[in-house]
């Protein structure tokens, strides 16, 4: 990782050592740091996309169920900044709506449009915006340019699924002081990380992070696939094998929502890393967290 990003973690290291956490545990936690691209609507960073704007899709792409949140220029999001093997060119469209879903169904989707693909304009308010309550949320969706700010990310979570069966969790393997280190990160995060609404890559988090939200979303994606298969025998989902293991998924994007009526909520777009490398976005999953 870029040494300049690692140097931002000096306040984290100092606070962890002040609390008596052994140096070897602090350094092991810092070694897990990942780059992340925080997208902001101010400053002088390069413009890499926008919130809202016209919805431009190829003619053969079905109308998305969810409204458009953001359009991103892949060429302006290098891997050294995001930690992700994004396509070298083209546009990535993030769709989603901050609302609870049934049977672990996704709360959004991702569409990738290669450079040079002919497109046509579509309506931006989709089927998920279906009544006065959802319209009131949709009308607050941001409309602004997005600028890139290179950032650094440490885990906010401190638990992992138990190697055994069931829903039990254990302290993150290899990090016996994980809870304390995650707490230090929570308390020093504000003076280290960039304050922005959209994050590309890095570690996922929300207001009640104990386990990794990416792992949770990957398990949710498999639950949704299994439910679709049971509901429609003989469908593509019924014939498909299980999705990749949760530890093979990455955070594509996170939106810290902050809309009136959805305070404390977050959307996470997650995807198997191999699918991302192969430019396959059909298995991306979008999870919604809300702590009202």
Strand content: 25-35%
Radius of gyration: 19 Å
Work out the helicity level.
Answer: 25-40%
Low-confidence stretches are none
CATH topology: Hypothetical protein YwqG fold
CATH architectural designation? Roll
Assembly state: single chain
Structural class: alpha+beta
Shape: globular
Would you mind describing this structure in some detail?
The protein has helices at 3-7, 10-18, 23-30, 79-82, 132-138, 178-192, 213-231, 236-239, 273-277; strands spanning 34-40, 47-51, 55-57, 68-73, 91-96, 108-113, 120-122, 144-153, 159-161, 169-171, 198-200, 249-256, 265-272, 285-290. The protein has 292 residues and is an alpha+beta fold. The protein has one domain (3-290): Hypothetical protein YwqG fold. The chain has a ten-stranded antiparallel beta sheet with strand order 6-5-4-2-8-1-11-12-13-14. Strands 3-7 form a two-stranded antiparallel ribbon. A two-stranded antiparallel sheet has the order 9-10. A hairpin with an 8-residue loop joins strand 12 and strand 13 (265-272).
Question: What would you say about this model in short?
Answer:
By secondary structure, this protein is an alpha+beta fold. The chain has a single domain (about 5-290), classed as Hypothetical protein YwqG fold, CATH 2.30.320.
Helix/strand layout:
Layout: H1 3-7, H2 10-18, H3 23-30, E1 34-40, E2 47-51, E3 55-57, E4 68-73, H4 79-82, E5 91-96, E6 108-113, E7 120-122, H5 132-138, E8 144-153, E9 159-161, E10 169-171, H6 178-192, E11 198-200, H7 213-231, H8 236-239, E12 249-256, E13 265-272, H9 273-277, E14 285-290
Antiparallel strand pairs: 1-8, 1-11, 2-4, 2-8, 3-7, 4-5, 5-6, 9-10, 11-12, 12-13, 13-14
Helix pairs in contact: 2-6
């Amino acid at each position: 990782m870029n040494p300049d990003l690692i140097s931002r973690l000096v306040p984290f290291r100092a606070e962890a050592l002040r609390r008596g956490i052994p140096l070897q545990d602090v350094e092991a936690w810092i070694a897990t740091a990942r780059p992340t691209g925080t997208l902001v609507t101010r400053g002088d960073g390069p413009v890499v996309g926008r919130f809202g704007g016209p919805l431009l899709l190829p003619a053969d792409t079905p109308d998305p169920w969810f409204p458009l949140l953001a359009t991103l220029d892949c060429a302006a999001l290098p891997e050294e900044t995001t930690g992700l093997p994004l396509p070298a060119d083209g546009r990535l469209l993030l769709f989603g709506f901050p609302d609870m879903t049934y049977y672990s169904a996704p709360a959004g989707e991702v569409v990738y449009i290669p450079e040079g693909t002919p497109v046509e304009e579509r309506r931006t308010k989709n089927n998920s915006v279906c009544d006065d309550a959802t319209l009131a949320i949709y009308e607050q969706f941001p409309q602004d340019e997005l600028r890139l700010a290179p950032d650094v990310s440490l885990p906010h979570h401190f638990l992992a699924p138990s190697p055994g069966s069931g829903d039990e969790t254990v302290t993150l393997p290899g990090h016996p002081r994980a809870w304390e280190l995650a707490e230090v990160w929570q308390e020093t995060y504000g003076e280290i990380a960039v304050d922005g609404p959209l994050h590309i890559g890095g570690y996922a988090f929300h207001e009640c992070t104990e386990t990794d939200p990416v792992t949770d979303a990957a398990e949710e994606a498999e639950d949704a696939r299994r439910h679709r298969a049971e509901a429609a025998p003989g469908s593509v989902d019924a014939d498909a094998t299980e999705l990749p293991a949760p530890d093979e998924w990455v955070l594509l994007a996170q939106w810290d929502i902050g809309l009136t009526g959805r305070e404390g909520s977050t959307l996470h777009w997650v995807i198997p890393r191999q699918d991302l490398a192969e430019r396959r976005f059909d298995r991306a999953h979008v999870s919604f967290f809300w702590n009202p």
